[in-house]
Write a structure and sequence with these properties.
The complex is a heterodimer of chains A (about 270) and B (about 325).
Chain A (H helix, E strand, L loop, with lengths): L2 H5 L6 E12 L2 E12 L3 E5 L6 H8 L7 E6 L2 E3 L4 H6 L2 E3 L12 H7 L9 H6 L2 H20 L15 H14 L4 E5 L7 H17 L3 E5 L3 H7 L2 E6 L2 E6 L1 H6 L1 H8 L4
Parallel strand pairs in A: 3-8, 3-9, 6-7, 7-8
Antiparallel strand pairs in A: 1-2, 1-4, 4-5, 9-10
Helix pairs in contact in A: 4-7
Chain B lengths: L2 H34 L6 H17 L5 H8 L12 H22 L9 H23 L16 H8 L15 H23 L1 H11 L1 H6 L4 H27 L8 H12 L4 H26 L5 H15 L14
Classes of the chains: A alpha/beta (about 270), B mainly alpha (about 325).
């Protein structure tokens, strides 16, 4: 599928439809018959207690996990499963709960890996490293510099990311995803372990990406005030099952959701 | 200068240069280990196979000729009398690329996400299969490999150094093999090219990315499988260079595959994940071996220390710095 096709979907239309997805590891059911839709251009949150299957859901969407049954409709085409490479080529970028950065590389190089799919020079040309290759490198470097400006990463441009503090690593990881100029951005707990100020920064980055670049955002987050603040719609999972879906105001009133979070009152 | 000092210098130079030969082999191991976490036991056989193939192309040998002649009663042996080394090397490189592709298709692809020990076993299997295939394709006789790299002692150096000894002492000049000098030059070029490539090009970046974190690499759309083919092909190329050097020195014979075992102590010293480590490790092992042979051997009046001293060094190293000089630090979280 070409990127054009995904780009041609109008805003507000469904871009990903999860249809009755189940996922089991041996006897352990991570997801059971989950269905929901993500609309283009929205901020969509997946919430739920620990072990609810939120990360599994994200992994199904970008192809790390193959669902046991069900279908994923991506940009109008039904699929049994996604493949990571295909997902990346179709404009799906992501970050990870436990930060998956290239620790030995500098911030700049990490962000440059986000441009790999957009670079077209072949192997031989690169080996010779002349005219067109240098020009292409410069073009992508420029794109990356814009992300660096946007996320305020100038000071750590050359620092190996392994030595950066946690909050900054999370930001670099977001930067790498943004450098891909994604259509859909999957964020797995982007604010976990951050202080209030860092959370505010991160919320601002996510909202700006959504507003200005029209990126569709699917995020998992535990901080409810953040989720209620920035999401357009929310789906709630518990023990691998969907127990609620709707706008933040609706979720706050949903009895099943309140029970899952606070325990059932006898 | 006293004769002792001159002898010492000669030993050091020869040690360092034979170390470069070890580095060349170790380099292939490191590349594959970094990119895929596989310890490729077949690296030594790669060098043997590349050298066999090179000689085969040079002399126009028909692959599998013994088998074909036996089966069909024909008498094929050669396509053509000889081929220029340059073209033979190009053909060998192509063969090694095809080999890398086949290995990915037939072996690695089916073992993704398996335990490292299983992958290691697979490479042991691969080593023996490839050795057998090499035997079947090109025959098992010892072959002479000559791609035009000069070898033998440097007369110029011998003559120049005679004059360095102090008056009245008996000194016959330094012996340094020109082949080793060439090996050093080629290794330096190879490592520089690799370093530049991985630092400044997109494929190089993808290589480093895969070496660092598979999951993250997948998420930015890098195809692990094509990177693996690439890495195995580059390792095949390095194996060919090592095969040419070792083959020129001692003929292409099946014991060539044992150089893989010499690379082990190099890797333990340098660390399994570091390219500079492979180089420095090789130099240290080469140097240690030669010094031990001459000085400890001379002192204790025993010979052939060279054969096991490298492993002794590796053992001592394991006690004090198990991750090697440049390896990733082993941190165990509890």
């Amino acid at each position: 599928m070409s990127l054009d096709k995904i780009q041609s979907i109008p805003y507000g239309k469904e871009i990903i439809k999860i249809k009755n997805i189940s996922l089991a590891f041996g006897g352990v059911k991570a997801l059971t018959n989950v269905s929901f839709e993500v609309k283009k251009g929205e901020v969509f949150a997946i919430i739920g207690p620990n072990g609810a299957g939120k990360s599994s859901m994200l992994n199904v969407i970008n192809g790390f996990y193959k669902p046991t049954s069900g279908q994923i409709n991506f940009a109008g085409e039904d699929r049994k499963e996604m493949i990571p490479e295909f997902a990346a080529k179709s404009g799906i970028a992501r970050t990870f709960q436990n930060i998956a950065l290239f620790k030995g590389m500098s911030t700049l190089d990490n962000l440059m890996t986000g441009r790999l799919l957009k670079q077209k020079q072949n192997f031989l040309m690169q080996a010779l490293y002349f005219g067109p290759v240098q020009k292409e490198e410069a073009y992508h470097r420029d794109k990356v510099e814009r992300v660096i400006d946007f996320l305020d990463l100038q000071a750590i441009r050359r620092t190996p990311v392994g030595s950066l503090p946690y909050g900054l690593q999370k930001r670099v990881e977001l930067g790498r995803a943004l450098a891909m100029e994604p259509e859909i951005l999957l964020l797995d707990e982007p604010m976990a372990g951050m202080n209030v100020e860092e959370k505010q920064d991160m919320s601002r980055f996510v909202l700006t990406a959504n507003d200005e670049f029209k990126t569709t955002i699917v995020l998992i987050e535990h901080d409810m005030s953040v989720v209620m603040d920035i999401s357009d719609r929310i789906v709630v999972l518990d023990y691998g099952k969907k127990i609620g879906e709707g706008k933040p105001s609706e979720i706050l009133k949903n009895k099943a959701v309140i029970d899952a979070y606070l325990g059932v009152a006898d | 200068m006293s004769v002792e000092l001159l002898n010492f210098i000669e030993t050091v130079i020869n040690g360092l240069m034979s170390g470069i030969m070890y580095s060349l082999v170790a380099l292939g191991f490191v590349l594959i280990f970094k990119a895929s976490g596989v310890f490729n036991f077949a690296q030594g056989v790669f060098a043997l196979f590349a050298a066999l193939t090179l000689v085969g192309f040079q002399t126009g040998q028909v692959p599998f000729s013994h088998l074909i002649n036996e089966l069909f009663g024909t008498n094929f042996h050669n396509w053509y009398p000889s081929l220029h080394s340059f073209f033979a090397i190009i053909l060998t490189i192509i063969t090694m690329i095809v080999l890398a592709w086949l290995i990915e298709k037939l072996v690695l692809k089916h073992l993704v996400n398996q335990e490292p020990i299983i992958l290691f076993m697979a490479t042991i299997g691969l080593a023996f299969v490839l050795e057998g295939v090499g035997d079947l394709m090109w025959g098992s006789d010892v072959k002479v490999l000559d791609v035009g790299i000069p070898s033998g002692g440097s007369e110029w150096l011998e003559k120049t150094t005679i004059g360095w000894a102090s008056e009245g002492s008996e000194y016959y000049g330094m012996y340094i093999d020109v082949l080793n000098v060439w090996a050093t030059i080629i290794a330096v070029i190879l490592v520089t090219a690799l370093a530049l490539f991985s630092q400044y090009t997109k494929t190089g970046r993808a290589l480093r990315a895969v070496a660092d974190d598979h999951q993250a690499a997948l998420s930015v759309g890098i195809s692990l499988r094509s990177i693996w083919v690439l890495v195995w092909a580059i390792s095949g190329f390095i194996a060919m260079v090592a095969g040419i050097m070792w083959g020129t020195e001692s003929g292409v014979q099946f014991s060539l595959s044992l150089i893989a075992l010499k690379a082990l102590p190099v890797l333990i010293l340098g660390g399994f994940t570091s390219i500079p480590g492979a180089i420095i490790g090789g130099l240290l092992i080469g140097l240690g071996e030669k010094l031990a042979e001459i000085y400890i051997g001379g002192l204790l009046d025993i010979g052939a220390i060279e054969n096991w001293f490298a492993y002794f060094m590796a053992l001592v190293f394991l006690l004090f710095r198990p991750q090697g000089l440049f390896g990733d630090k082993i941190i165990e979280r509890v």
